[in-house]
């Protein structure tokens, strides 16, 4: 069967961009293998520059420098998506220092093509006390350049597992001559100091310390990065980023629409308090909290109840909780700081029963003088994981809610995470429209957000 060239090109591009990166010992990459199938495939692949534009560079492979040279030549003028690391998969060898020393040589190979960079992600060892370490050298190499097509920048510093204290690495000024297309930035175990990068066009920012023993930075550093991004719309904060200090000035994020917070074991209740008190987000539409222990969850609830002004999040529509442990007492103020919620999504939520039971108690008092409904606009509930222990409280809530003028419109349940069984699903379907759908991509994104040390460093 002979496929048209146009269809083969689509297949080639899809295979080259969707395939997960190879590990250290998987040495045949798809573009290379496809170009050796037959003469026709080779001719077509060599004349498809996009096919060679995705560079997952693993410097521990002995032949990698030659391969990168071939890819750069064959990609011609195509925009480049570059990931540079010792290798893509996190394992024991990813904790061995010294193997990043070859990275500056690869940067030198890539720099003549910096005008074509669309994505640049690097995973590197910290320099420690070495003044000639690869991290410092790469910063120097990128200092006096522009990257006009760069849309996504990711700098990840490897935090050792076997240490009691890890100091996140500073980022000195880089790409000083401009990154006019830069819209997405992620820093892992790295601190962006004042003037370190042109953030003025950034709309998506991901800041985090993945190592449990990482030393927080100063609040002023975080404040500078956020305020240097005046068009910020999507913000992810991982781990405890800054130290507590008194009278912290408010950080105004007037255009922020989505806030995702990943609380690692090292985050204390004081940090949760400081974080929500310090951020002003009047246009926030989505708030997602990940990996909350019972203590962290109670700390969040306490902050919402005792320290937040009414309608702290006046236009919030989606509220998500992932991997919350244990149950907790709920109070009305938790709902009143986000009164316009229309969509609630939950993954492994220990809070679910307490939350729905509180909403039921609120509706039971609807005939009382001065009664105020909680989350009156809630119409959709998404369970990325559902089990029988949730059924009773959810069903009771749906019955009560159906008696008022704002019933729940539908419940979405991930088919692969559905533990209710056929009988409970049928019973639930009599109360509300139930969609059992494939939410694998959403589950994968949630799992990726909440992992402290993911399998793949850039996920």
Structure notes:
The chain is of the alpha/beta class and 459 residues long. The protein has a domain at 1-202. Helix content is 30%, strand content 18%. A 14-stranded parallel sheet has the order 1-2-3-4-6-8-9-11-13-14-15-16-17-18, with helices on both faces. Helix 5 packs parallel to helix 6 (134-143), helix 8 runs parallel beside helix 9 (294-306) and helix 11 packs parallel to helix 12 (391-401). The relative contact order is 0.07. Residues 21-25 and 88-97 have low confidence and may be disordered.
Quick summary:
Helices cover 30% and strands 18% of the residues.
Uncertain segments are 21-25, 88-97
Q: Helix/strand/pairing class, anyone?
A: alpha/beta
CA radius of gyration: 25 Å
> In percent, how much strand structure appears in the residues?
15-25%
Count of runs of 4 or more consecutive helical residues: 14
Largest beta sheet, briefly? 14 strands, parallel
Looking across the biggest beta sheet, what order are the strands in?
1-2-3-4-6-8-9-11-13-14-15-16-17-18
| Broad shape | globular
Instruction: Determine the fraction of residues in helical runs and give it as a percent range.
Output: 25-40%
């Amino acid at each position: 069967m002979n496929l048209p060239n146009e269809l083969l090109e689509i297949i080639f591009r899809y295979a080259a961009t969707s395939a997960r990166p190879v590990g250290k010992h998987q040495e045949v990459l798809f573009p290379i293998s496809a170009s050796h199938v037959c003469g026709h495939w080779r001719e077509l692949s060599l004349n498809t520059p996009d096919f060679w534009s995705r560079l997952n560079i693993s410097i521990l492979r002995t032949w990698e420098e030659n391969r990168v040279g071939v890819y750069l030549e064959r990609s011609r003028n195509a925009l480049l998506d570059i990931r540079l690391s010792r290798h893509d998969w996190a394992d024991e060898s990813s904790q061995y220092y010294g193997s990043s020393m070859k990275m500056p040589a690869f940067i030198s190979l890539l720099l003549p093509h910096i005008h074509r960079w669309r994505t640049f992600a690097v995973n590197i060892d910290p320099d420690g006390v070495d003044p000639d370490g690869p991290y410092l050298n790469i910063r120097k190499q990128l200092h006096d350049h522009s990257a006009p097509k760069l849309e996504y920048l990711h700098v990840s510093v490897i935090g050792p597992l076997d240490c009691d204290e890890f100091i996140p690495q500073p980022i000195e000024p880089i790409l000083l001559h401009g990154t006019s297309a830069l819209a997405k930035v992620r820093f892992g175990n790295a601190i962006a100091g004042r003037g370190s990068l042109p953030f003025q066009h950034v709309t998506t920012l991901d800041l985090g310390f993945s190592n449990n023993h990482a030393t927080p930075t100063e609040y002023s550093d975080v404040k500078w990065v956020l305020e240097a991004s005046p068009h910020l719309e999507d913000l992810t904060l991982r781990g405890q980023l800054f130290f507590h200090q008194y009278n912290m000035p408010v950080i105004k994020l007037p255009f922020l629409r989505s806030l995702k917070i990943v609380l690692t074991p090292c985050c204390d209740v004081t940090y949760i308090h400081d974080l929500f008190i310090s951020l002003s987000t009047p246009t926030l539409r989505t708030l997602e909290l990940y990996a909350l222990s019972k203590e962290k969850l109670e700390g969040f609830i306490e902050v919402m109840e005792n320290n937040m002004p009414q309608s702290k999040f006046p236009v919030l529509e989606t509220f998500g909780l992932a991997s919350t442990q244990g149950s907790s007492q709920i109070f009305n103020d938790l709902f009143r700081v986000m009164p316009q919620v229309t969509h609630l999504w939950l993954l492994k939520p220990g809070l679910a029963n307490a939350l729905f039971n509180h909403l039921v108690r609120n509706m039971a008092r609807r005939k009382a003088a001065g009664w105020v409904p909680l989350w009156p606009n809630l119409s959709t509930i998404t369970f990325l994981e559902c089990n029988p222990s949730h059924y009773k409280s959810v069903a009771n809530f749906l019955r009560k809610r159906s008696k008022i003028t704002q019933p729940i419109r539908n419940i979405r349940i991930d088919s692969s995470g559905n533990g209710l069984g056929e009988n409970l699903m049928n019973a639930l379907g009599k109360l509300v429209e139930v969609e059992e759908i494939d939410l694998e991509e959403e589950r994968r994104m949630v799992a990726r957000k909440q992992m402290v040390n993911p399998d793949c460093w850039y996920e």
